[in-house]
Amino acid sequence: MTAAAQGNAAENKSNGQAGSQSRSAQEQQLLEYESALKMFSQQRYAEASELFAKVLTGPARNIADKARAYVQVCARKTAQPDTEFQNADDHFNYGVERLNARDIEKARHHLTRALAMKPDAEYIVYTMALCCGLSGDGSGACENLKRAIELEPKNRILARQDPEFAILSQQIPALRALLGTE
Q1: 23/180 Cα distance (integer angstroms)
Q2: ∠ at Cα 155 (149, 159), nearest 5°?
Q3: What is the DSSP letter of 80?
Q4: Average pLDDT of the residues in 108-115
Q5: In this structure, are residues 127 and 140 in contact, taking their beta carbons and an 8 Å threshold?
Q6: Which stretches of 58-121 are DSSP H helices?
Q7: DSSP for 22-69?
Q8: Does the pTM exceed 0.90?
Q9: I need a surface site. Which of 89, 92, 175, 180 has the fewest CB within 10 A?
């Protein structure tokens, strides 16, 4: 074998090793990406974020780009809200936002805090009635709606026209009786 042929053979061998190393690095990157996706789907955002961050350093740019987007989503999911609630209306507004997102536990917590600050605020009592109903607490829904109607009689009409109360009144006979829709 000539010296040039030996050099080419050595270069090809070297390129082949680099190619297989690159493939194994890409395979490792893909495995880490898939593991991170599993954690993400299990809502284990902090752990997923760490794995996605490792994926960013891998050789496959398309996988790294996807991982970068997931890192940002994980950061938003794990961020603690820095909102300070100054008054009943702050708690009420956040409670309504959580109720709309169907995060019933947080909604109920903030509506309870709002009621503690403003116990006679009919709009808070009305919303608490809805929150109780959506959480499956029929007696809480009835008690709060009854109180909201006592504080403001127009709440009976509002509840009759509210599609969510209409659904709840089909499920809770006492609520249906309170609304007079029987």
Answers
A1: 70
A2: 115
A3: P
A4: 95
A5: no
A6: 61-78, 88-100, 104-117
A7: HHHHHHHHHHHHHHHHHHHHTT-HHHHHHHHHHHTTSS-HHHHHHHHH
A8: no
A9: 180
The tokens of 105 are what? Answer: 């536990």
> Rounded to whole angstroms, how far apart are CA atoms 77 and 158?
35
Q: What percent of the chain has pLDDT above 90?
A: 49
The token pair that represents 124 in the structure block: 């808070």
Domains present along the chain, CATH in parentheses: 3-78 (no CATH), 88-179 (1.25.40.10)
Q: Which amino acid is at 100?
A: N
Rg (the chain; Cα; Å):
29
Asked if 148 and 125 count as a contact pair (C-beta separation under 8 A), the reply is yes
* Amino acid letter for position 26: Q
**Cα–Cα distance for residue pair 129/155, rounded to 1 Å:** 11
Q: Is 35 exposed, middle or buried (0-12, 13-18, 19+ CB in 10 A)?
A: middle
Per-residue tokens: 139: 């007696």
Q: What is the pLDDT of residue 22?
A: 56
